[in-house]
Structures are given as C-alpha cells and as structure tokens.
Design a protein that fits this description.
Layout lengths: L1 E3 L8 E7 L1 H9 L6 E2 L3 E10 L2 E15 L6 E7 L2 E7 H5 L24 E4 L3 E3 L1 H11 L46
Parallel strand pairs: 7-8
Antiparallel strand pairs: 1-9, 2-4, 3-5, 4-5, 5-6, 5-7
Length: 186
C-alpha cells in the first residue's frame, strides 16, 4: 500500500485497499504474538496535504485467530483498525534550529512531546502505509483475550479445561511460609 504524495490534490485523496490474508499474517505473526489472520481485511483511507505534511485518516477491521489467555481454546477476534496520523517529512525535523543531525538524537527519535504523539516521519515522494498499518494493528490487539468473560481457565494441577468439566483437584495452594509446619507432629 503505497501512495505518491503528488497524487494528493487540494480536495484530498480517498483510497481503499484489500489487504490479503498473507500480508496480514506477516504483520501480526512476525512478532510471534500467536495471532494469525482469519481472512483478508479492508482498509479505507483519506489523505489531505497541508504543505508537505499529509493528514491520514484510516478505518478498517481485521479478523484474527488466536487463543484464549485462560483456557487456550481457539478464538477469533474482530480488531478495529481506526487511526489518524500526520505524516511529516523527515527533513522537517532535521531543519529545525537546534535539532541534531544525528538520527539517534533527533527530535523524532527521542520525542515524547504530546503534540508529536500522532506524527510519523516519511522520506521521499512515496509513503509506504504497510509499516504504519502493522504498528496500528499491533497496538489494537487485545492484551488479554478471552473466549468469554466467564471462562474458568485451566486447572493449575492437572491442566483440565474447567469450562468443559470440573476435575476435582485440590487447587488451593498452601501458604509456602507455613508449608514446613504441616509435617510437624505434636
């Protein structure tokens, strides 16, 4: 998904892409997160130029397959991918007074300024949206996915899925500070 900034005219540019399942897989499973694409995704984007900066608004959804964090059963989640960013030419950061020429010390590399939180740098005339989509997709993933809110998880003793049946194991762990006293005979 690439856009030449010269294509963005005064009224803006509306684009849409179908992101194939294989591309989504590379985006989400590359970090070994355990997620796989369930199918293709569709992304709608609107871009507007303001001088050399580009305002990007994108909306889409991706269905991903993973596993429940409690019982490890398979689940599919619908991940919304909605974001707004300002794409800034990388030389704008370097041309500012007092800005360092070294990229490791440049304002964009070490910035935590609130007004720059929604900015992303680009170089050249073509903007590649793949890394931006990957980042936004990973940020949108649920941190602790569960198959259902009432999921009981796995037995910590025998590993039985407690949603399917109760195993009868004693799962109450003794306080380790008092464990040595249980063998004491009075």
């Amino acid at each position: 998904m690439r856009v030449n900034i010269d294509e963005i005219k005064e009224g803006g540019l509306q684009r849409s892409w179908d992101v194939p399942r294989e591309d989504l897989d590379r985006m989400v499973s590359g970090d070994r997160s355990g997620w796989r694409a369930h199918g293709a995704a569709h992304l709608e984007a609107r871009m507007e130029r303001v001088d050399r900066r580009v305002r990007l608004e994108a909306r889409g959804r991706a269905e991903l397959d993973g596993s429940c964090s409690r019982c490890l059963s398979a689940l599919t989640v619908d991940v919304p991918v909605d974001f707004e960013l300002t794409l800034v030419p990388s030389d704008e950061y370097e041309d500012e007074p007092g800005a360092a020429r070294d990229r490791s010390k440049s304002r964009i590399a070490a910035s935590f300024e609130p007004e720059e939180a929604e900015e992303e740098a680009y170089t050249g005339k073509v903007i590649d949206l793949d890394p931006i989509l990957r980042e936004q997709l990973i940020l949108s993933l649920p941190g602790y996915p569960v198959c259902r809110e009432t999921c009981r998880g796995l037995c910590t003793v025998c590993g039985t899925n407690l949603n399917e049946r109760d195993c009868g194991c004693e799962r109450k762990a003794p306080d380790p500070r008092w464990a040595a006293l249980k063998d004491l005979k009075l």
